[in-house]
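In the design runs reported in the main text, the only information available to the sequence generator was the tokenized backbone. The following block is the verbatim input for one such run; it is reproduced so that readers can re-run the procedure and compare outputs position by position.
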């Protein structure tokens, strides 16, 4: 009878081990991606970004956010599940600077790393004194950020987008609006 009970116990333990192994998630198939290659914010700005988990469709997940919390803030209490493995987070800029946000999915220890840049917003800009700007009829003008002074001078945000509605040339004076 003891042999029979030992055999039954071994059979039950083997069956339990096989069942638990079959029910476990294959974490090697998971991948974690972010909706942007970087997070670029101006001071006090808040934006939403999406985290996508491929091949994982549980309704509840656990993320860890590692970064310099004096530069930016992630609202970890309000992560929104959009379905299909996509989660939305809010990131707010607190102080100018740069940091690296490492998002880790604790189930499977998958990570994605995103640079975070917080800029002081540009309040004004002007053409530098040593830049001669001239227009040739029928030709285009190419502007670049090194042609301008940006204010405040500590800003790192120096992308320019120009839009011209009309151009008036009067007595060699060029006016664009």
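Verbatim output:
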């Amino acid at each position: 009878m003891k042999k029979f009970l030992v055999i039954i116990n071994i059979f039950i333990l083997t069956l339990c081990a096989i069942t638990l192994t079959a029910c476990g998630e294959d974490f090697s198939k998971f991948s974690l991606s972010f909706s942007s290659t970087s997070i670029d914010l101006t001071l006090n700005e808040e934006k939403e970004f999406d985290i996508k988990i491929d091949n994982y469709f549980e309704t509840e997940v656990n993320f860890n956010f590692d970064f310099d919390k004096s530069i930016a803030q992630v609202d970890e209490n309000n992560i929104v599940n959009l379905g299909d493995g996509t989660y939305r987070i809010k990131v707010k800029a607190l102080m100018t600077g740069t940091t690296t946000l490492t998002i880790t999915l604790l189930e499977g220890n998958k990570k994605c790393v995103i640079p975070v840049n917080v800029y002081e917003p540009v309040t004004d800009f002007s053409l530098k004194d040593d830049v001669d700007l001239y227009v040739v009829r029928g030709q285009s003008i190419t502007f670049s950020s090194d042609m301008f002074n940006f204010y405040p001078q500590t800003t790192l945000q120096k992308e320019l987008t120009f839009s011209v509605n009309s151009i008036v040339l009067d007595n060699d004076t060029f006016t664009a609006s």
